[in-house]
Write a structure and sequence with these properties.
This protein is an alpha/beta fold and about 250 residues long. It has helices spanning about 15-25, 35-50, 65-70, 100-130, 150-170, 190-195, 200-205, 215-225, and strands at about 5, 30-35, 55-60, 85, 135-140, 175-185, 185, 210-215, 235-240. The protein has one domain: Rossmann fold (3-Layer(aba) Sandwich), CATH 3.40.50. Helix 1 links the parallel strand 1 (about 5) and strand 2 (about 30-35). It is globular and about 50 Å long. It binds NADPH dihydro-nicotinamide-adenine-dinucleotide phosphate and 2-hydroxyethylsulfonic acid.
């Protein structure tokens, strides 16, 4: 029987690449996000190109009732989830603290922090029932230090870092692994979302250096999930060769 992975935010960027990487490795994939059309296309690709099963689930991680309603009703044959990747997330805006938009702050905290708590809480019973599982949380270099005008996003990823540590401690008796991956700048739709569709600003983020790509993060997630049962990578920071941390990028 194939292993099963559930990936949030699989309609784009890291999540989509992770789904493709695991499907290529013979894993059945539960793919989630808000954009049903993209999930449908991806499910089709995973099934036809890689010959695995794919279950698309449409929900907004910010919406507590929606998250539980969908995840508590997963069909029986999909419940032995081996790996959960809490990847859905976003940054909105790059503004100084006094100019930052309150709605942007709410959305980042609701998605990057509360969304991870809801999804994990909803999936955990499937893992604790088997005393087996692996949770991979997508952090950021913004979880490790704070940069100028990164206030709300950095706070949300610092909170996620704390949650990853808390999960690792509390889930020890359940034999559930918790890995936090903290990528530096990667060219996905992330900056288009952050700058609300401003293509010029989004492109500027990656000007003058080679960033990470979604496939790099997918390879790393696959490696983390392929280690022997007794081994867990707890915390992993990764950037392109041009980036030292959340602040220093050599262009
Ligand atoms: P993308 O914008 O390409 O993908 C983000 C994904 O998150 C989409 O699939 C989107 O799906 C999903 N998502 C966002 N909000 C919600 C929501 N409320 N409910 C459900 N799904 C949601 O960005 P990345 O792939 O780059 O980002 C993935 C993760 O990696 C994020 O957590 C981000 O913070 C983190 N990260 C990104 C870095 C980068 O430089 N790119 C570096 C470090 C970390 P949909 O819109 O269909 O719901
Ligand atoms: C995304 C990387 O540097 O834009 O988490 O915060 S950064």
């Amino acid at each position: 029987m194939n292993k099963i992975i559930l990936i949030t935010g699989a309609t784009s960027g890291f999540g989509k690449a992770i789904a493709e990487k695991f499907a290529a490795g013979g894993w059945d994939c539960i793919i989630t996000g808000r954009r049903a059309d993209r999930l449908g296309l991806l499910a089709n690709t995973l099934q036809t190109q890689y010959g695995v099963q794919a279950l698309p689930l449409v929900f907004d991680v910010q919406k507590r009732e929606e998250v539980f309603a969908v995840l508590e009703k997963i069909p029986e044959q999909w419940r032995n989830i081996d790996v959960l990747v809490n990847n859905a997330g976003l940054a909105l805006g790059r503004d100084s603290f006094e100019n930052a938009n309150l709605d942007d702050w709410d959305t980042m905290i609701d998605t990057n922090v509360k969304g991870v708590m809801y999804v994990t809480k909803a999936v955990l019973p499937y893992m604790t029932a088997r005393k087996k599982g692996h949770i991979i949380n997508m952090g950021s270099v913004a979880a490790k230090l704070v940069y100028k005008e990164g206030n709300g996003y950095c706070a949300s990823k610092h909170a996620l870092d704390a949650l990853s540590k808390a999960m690792r401690i509390d889930l020890l008796p359940q034999r559930i692994k918790v890995t936090a991956i903290h990528p530096g700048a990667a060219e996905t739709e992330f900056s288009m979302v952050r700058f609300k569709g401003d293509e010029t600003k989004a492109k500027q983020v990656y000007d003058g250096f080679t960033p990470l790509y979604a496939e790099d993060i997918a390879d790393i997630a696959f490696y983390c999930a392929s280690l022997p049962e007794n081994v867990c990578i707890n915390d992993l920071t990764v950037s392109s060769i041009s980036q030292a941390d959340g602040v220093y990028i050599h262009k």
